[in-house]
TrEMBL record:
It comes from Mesorhizobium salmacidum. The keyword Transferase does not apply. GO terms for molecular function: lyase activity. This is CoA ester lyase. The keyword Lyase applies.
Length: 296
């Protein structure tokens, strides 16, 4: 199993915005998505693409936790007039990952994987997929299944809630009532495929309280992190998707209890009036490893 890699806070930075690009090295987000798609106007697409190699060459080595911020590039859809040239440019720039927008079917992922195989070892550049179309929702299990084959490179799903709202006509409400069934379905499929699952963006970036509520909701739903549009959202996301102090204390108690000599051969024990099994020990160890990785 690969070691835990935090993706609590994943910030979109438009490839056409010099001021925003210059900020990346100072930001405490776990990953950055350099966007060539929706954040870049058609007239700026080619110039933005030409800057990619320079942006990735100047990537920060490590953040304040001694980790390197993951750098992912979102290309335009292969079916668009920019997609093929984006992919050729990104392949040369060697990001950690390539984010594919508007994925509808497993084929959309496999096609890009075939192009990457000409340039990179299978365990290098990963593929991330935006789940943001009605067709993707109907094919979600088959797309996620690709994650079980490392040769597919598929590593992470991102919910594209703006596009889903646009394409389905559901009402966007503060509690996301009409989106929740799809978000949970994505989460379930991602887990079946061994993929990370990131929540969509929160557009009202001047409303930190509502943002914190949406992060808490996504964390409770099991998401690994949230995609962000503004640096002011990073800290709250890092907090919301880190294990809580209470969860860590409980995990330590489970680990300590199973470490006792009298429990060494047991599959199930009682701890503070609660049944605890070895599956809970595995869960506790995973949480503690996650906390160690993020320095929590
Ligand atoms: C949303 C914004 C347009 C707001 O911009 P602005 O009003 O300029 O913000 P501020 O003045 O508050 O900015 C303060 C400083 O922070 C820098 N900044 C702002 N945003 C970013 C960023 N994303 N990354 C890095 N740095 C950023 C500004 O440059 C200011 O710097 P300084 O002046 O030096 O102090 C803007 O935040 C923005 O463009 N955000 C990203 C938008 C984006 O990428 N959208 C596409 C992805 S979301 C999506 O596509 C959804 C999905 O597909 C779906 O379907 O749901
Ligand atoms: Mg979108």
């Amino acid at each position: 199993m690969e070691p835990y890699r935090p993706r609590r806070s994943v910030l979109y930075v438009p490839a056409s915005n010099e001021k925003a690009l210059a900020k990346i090295a100072q930001l405490a987000c776990d990953a950055v998505i350099i966007d060539l798609e929706d954040a870049v106007a058609p007239a700026d697409k080619i110039a933005a693409r030409e800057k990619l190699a320079g942006i990735l060459a100047n990537r920060p080595d490590a953040d304040h936790n001694g980790r390197r911020c993951e750098m992912v590039v979102r290309v335009n859809a292969l079916s668009s007039e920019w997609g093929a040239d984006d992919l050729a440019a990104v392949a040369k720039a060697e990001p950690d990952g390539i984010l594919l927008p508007k994925v509808d079917t497993p084929r959309d992922v496999l096609e890009v994987g075939d192009v990457l195989d000409d340039n990179f070892a299978p365990d290098s550049v990963k593929l991330w997929a935006m789940i943001e179309t009605p067709k993707a929702m109907l094919n979600i299990g088959a797309i996620a299944e690709l994650g079980r084959d490392p040769a597919s490179r598929l590593d992470c799903f991102i919910a594209g809630t703006n596009d889903l709202i646009k394409d389905t006509g559901v009402l966007a409400t503060p509690d996301r009532a009409y989106l929740l069934p799809w978000l949970m379905q994505m989460l379930l499929a991602a887990r079946a495929g061994g993929l990370d699952m990131l929540d969509g963006v929160f557009n009202d970036f001047r409303d930190p309280d509502a943002f914190a509520r949406e992060c808490a909701q996504a964390a409770a739903m099991g998401f690994d992190g949230k995609t962000l549009i503004h640096p002011s959202q990073i800290e709250a996301a890092n907090r919301a998707f880190a294990p809580s102090a209470q969860a860590l204390a409980e995990a330590r108690a489970v680990k300590d209890a199973f470490a006792l000599a009298q429990n060494s051969g047991k599959g199930v024990i009682a701890l503070n009036g609660r049944m605890v099994e070895r599956l809970h020990l595995a869960q506790a160890e995973k949480l503690l490893a996650k906390a160690a990785a993020i320095g929590a």
